[in-house]
Specification:
By secondary structure, the protein is of the alpha+beta class. It contains 25 helices and 16 strands. The protein has a domain of 73 residues: Alpha-Beta Plaits (2-Layer Sandwich).
Length: 662
Amino acid sequence: MAIVKMKRLRVIALAEERDELLARLLHVGCVEVTEPEGALSDPEWMALLHRDTSALGDVKASANAVNAALEALRKYAPETKKKLLDKLFVTRKAIKESEFLNGKALETALNSAAEINQRTQRISQIYTQGNRISAQRAALVPWASLDLPLDTKSTEHAQISFHTCPAGVDLAEVRAALLQAAPSAELFEASVDKELHYLLLVCHRDEAETVAETVKPWSFSTVSFKEFGGTAAENITRIDAELAENAKEREHVAAEITAMGGVRQDLQICADRLVAELAKQAAREKLLTNGTIVFLEGWITEPGLPKAEAEMMNYACAWETAEPLEEEEPPVLLENPHWMNPINMVTEMYSMPAYRGIDPNPLIFFTFLFFFGFMFADVAYGIIIWALCFYITRKYHPKYTMGYMFRLGQYMGIATAICGVFTGGFFGDVIPKFAEMMLGIPPTELPRWLQIFNNGIVVNPINSPMNALILAIVIGVVHLLFGQCIHIYMGFRDGTSVDALLDVVPWWAFFASIGLVVAGLPWWTILIGCLILVLTQGHTKRGILGKLMGGVASLYDVTSWLSDILSYSRLMALMLATSVIASVMNTLGTLGGLSVMGIIMFIVVFIIGHVFNVGVNVIGTFVHAARLHYLEFFGKFYEEGGAPFQPLSYKTKYVDIIEEEN
């Protein structure tokens, strides 16, 4: 239960064995390849070696192609009869490592992806063509009533033109103006919509300029039909036929993609394989080479060293490992028992600990679950949370952060149910409410054990909110004292025991002086505690004056301590919020009494209300449980800022790999 020890790894290998070596390091999954910064800044190194090249761009292109093909299958060949959870989570398939790394299967899947993507591109082209044709049709529809070819030419004496003008224009006014300025001109209206009049204007050529000037005040615009011949109606009929053919072709190509739904699983395996290949190519770009040899530098976990050495023994390479230098910050990997691993997600959401810090997971595992359970505190809610997370974990086996979340959710559900036993929560107060409002049984006539449960074996947040608040504050004080004890332990571990004791013990004396005053001692007893702080809290400063000023300034930290302690009142606040919302829903549900409509009303309100209560409060409770650890608890000892260990390893989405030894 600690931060895994890391060693610096340096390897020199033959360039011709580079890819095989990286593949085996990918297999063992305990080596993080890093930039060889020292070598890159050394002119002698760079005179001999240069950065290796990789096919990273090509692999990225292939990965994008496969993902695009999978997206096309999701659209055109969706998996049938999938439940909601099946759509949200991937059901992984277990395959052997040799099958996963099969080169021929990879090539076949890439060819299938290319075929699917060609068809999706064709569908995109068909859509574009259809949109263009539809736009042409929309432009012709207003002219459909004209029995005049759109390509009609003006004659030697007559000029024919098509126009539009705003729908608000009074055409009678336009015609009157034309009659006065150009008696030979005629204006015909083809149609009108909310925006425009669609007009045919015929006039004598000699009056063309006069007509143009006459209609200018009404914002006439000329329309050209250069690409059309025949009447608008004839063109619309032709376009409708083209659109029908367009839709038919689109359906045909889509059906071809649908028929390729059988390659979905192969594409999923290929997608995961390409993720591994991307990791390998990214590592290759960090290598140095002269064409004959390659130089690799990185970090390796101490437990994984024997396994990696066994793999490297199979290649013509030399390697060395070394302890990290004092100025180096190795990556951080947290190692805990399997059952405790889910708490990793809580730590990672904040920040990884420094490599030379302390693993917080064993320290926060039980307190985090207790805080969550304390705030939710309902037997039924706990069972629901546990059952849902247990089902998802067992059926879909989610990995990484998602896997941690649902495994942690099982523990949170158990903690919620246990705390609910001691606070009398079972869907809030549904038992006494239902008994009294629906069955007419007063709470005092329920069985004795049920009365004890309903009243809260330890505390009932609705009946005794002040008791819940006091309990929350006491829990907070204990939690903060625990954090300070860890600070002392780290001081003894790092050889700074005196500083650690001076950071903590004087504060205990100060708060003890406050307790003594509350117990009846004179008020000036607090001054003794203040004096202890002034004399000790500047111990890290230089000079007597600096130490004294640091001690005086520490008195201001009293407000910070009070703020930290009061922060734990949120334990009571969230517990009360959950209980009150549940109680309100139970009250509303039982208003209908014991009748058919009353029972229906109770069931509807009960389901909707409690689903809402769980959905809303599970997020808030998780966030506040994390906050109490991040801000209050971690502030007492935590050294953050570590970089997570990112080894060259398989990270799959669709399959679980059964690893095989060579």
